[in-house]
Design brief:
This protein is α/β, with parallel strands linked by helices. Helix content is 33%, strand content 16%. It has two domains: 113 residues, Rossmann fold (3-Layer(aba) Sandwich), CATH 3.40.50; 189 residues, Rossmann fold (3-Layer(aba) Sandwich), CATH 3.40.50.720. The strands form two sheets. Strands 8-7-6-9-10-11-12 form a seven-stranded parallel beta sheet, with helices on both faces. Strands 2-1-3-4-5 form a five-stranded parallel beta sheet. Helix 6 links the parallel strand 6 and strand 7. Helix 4 packs across helix 6. It holds the Pfam family 2-Hacid_dh. Keywords: NAD, Oxidoreductase, Pyruvate. Belongs to the D-isomer specific 2-hydroxyacid dehydrogenase family.
Length: 316
């Protein structure tokens, strides 16, 4: 019998897996030990929780043959090179969260433009009653770092809302999208200097680590609003802190953080010093962008299919 570990805060219906599969489901892992206690007997692993499958955990998982990451960014959740070295098959569920991330990104842009965080603090403290009219999306310059499925869908939604000043930088030009969405291709440095909002939707990895660094941010609009729904490591934390401290009118929203899950000890123990900045300048959430119910259900269904197909091809 194959043992399957599933992590993630979602329901798993009856009869999803055949009797030949023993399901072990940890909805909300609180620490690595919960996973370590199970890993030595696990053959397949659907990773939908907040954990990172490090080299240490891979060494413990002596029977592990297949890992399916519920999402696109496999390297954000698995030590990819070490897993491959150990002969573990890695799969993911790419492009399935585009609609959910688009919806979340547009919502966070609107929330930030309306200065919601500042308003909340003002009401709590009784210090002031903010009612400054917010700027319309259609009046702003918006730039994209990366123009894959998510960036494309957001650009399409913005165009429907009357946005005409759209820019992008990508490792490859998208000439058809430039024509259909009236996108302007730009260098990264030029784009951050010209736009009001910067949306980061590019895959994380060694090629894009610290892509946005001190050189880039030194030229950025002093009131730039950054929305990073990709890997935090795409933006250099030292450069980001310096930029936000020097430009109090700028802000950054990150769906994730440089230290995540149990490694995140809060603002009092943040080696990067970013979590101590006012929420109006830096806000970080716990990978919420893709957590829309139907999206998660669809992604899990896809992950199940991948696991069962692999198991069928590798019967003990």
């Amino acid at each position: 019998m194959r043992k399957l570990l599933v992590t993630g805060d979602f329901d798993i219906g009856e009869g999803v897996f055949p009797d030949s599969v023993e399901l072990l489901h940890i909805r909300c892992p609180v620490d690595e030990q919960q996973i370590i206690d199970i890993l030595p007997e696990v053959h397949d692993y659907i990773l939908g929780g907040p954990e990172y499958l490090s080299a240490r955990l891979i060494d413990i998982a002596t029977k592990l043959e297949h890992v399916v990451v519920m999402g696109t960014g496999t390297s954000s959740f698995v030590d990819v090179e070490y897993a491959k070295k150990k002969g573990i098959r890695l799969s993911n569920t790419p492009y399935m969260n585009a609609h959910a991330v688009t919806e979340f990104t547009l919502a966070m842009i609107t929330v930030s433009l309306a200065r919601i965080f500042e308003s909340i603090e003002g009401v709590k403290e009784g210090s002031r009653w903010l009612q400054t009219p917010r700027r319309s999306l259609s009046s702003l310059g918006i730039g994209f770092v990366g123009m894959g499925a998510i960036g494309t869908e957001i650009a399409q939604q913005l165009q429907k809302r009357g946005c005409k000043d759209l820019h992008y930088w990508s490792r490859t030009r998208k000439l058809e999208l430039e024509a259909s969405l009236n996108l302007k291709y730009s260098s990264l440095i030029r784009m951050v200097a010209e736009v009001d909002i910067l949306c980061v939707h590019i895959a994380g990895g060694s090629e894009t680590r610290h892509l946005i660094d001190e050189v880039v941010l030194k030229r950025a609009n002093p009131k730039l609003m950054i929305f990073n729904m990709s890997s935090p490591g795409i933006i250099c934390p030292v450069a980001l802190k310096g930029y936000l401290q020097s430009n109090t009118g700028a802000s950054c929203f990150i769906d994730g953080y440089y230290n995540e899950w149990t490694d995140n000890k809060g603002h009092c123990h943040d080696v990067h010093g970013l979590l101590s900045l006012p929420t109006t300048n830096l806000a970080a959430t716990s990978h919420l962008a893709g957590q829309e119910q139907q999206t998660v259900k669809n992604i899990f269904t896809c992950a199940v299919i991948k696991v069962l197909e692999f198991a069928s091809d590798h019967k003990n």
